[in-house]
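One such shown below:
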Amino acid sequence: MTHTLDVPGSVDLGTGKRARVQSDGVDIALFNIDGQIYAIDDSCPHNGASLLFGKLDGRFVRCPAHGLSFDLANGCMRGGGMNVRAYPVEVVEDRIRITLPTPITSHL
């Protein structure tokens, strides 16, 4: 199951900008690359470093801690190996919407 996160209108995500939003305790890094919005987990799977301010190379972001590069479109690491979660994004009436998995909660 999934749910939708509407990014607040106060988040400035013009072309070339980045931002961080949070949903259910997970930080999500948003990138606007040439008008295309991408959303990935803001945590490198290698050691948890933030990817938000990593160096961009086209649609790849490089982890500032150890240099691993991830494709913003699908979360796959360049060359294979570890991946980050990438989320579907759509822009509806100038609002950014991210489709996220519904968290599993325990009913014990």
Remarks:
- The longest strand covers residues 26-33.
- The domain at 2-101 is CATH 2.102.10.10 (Rieske Iron-sulfur Protein).
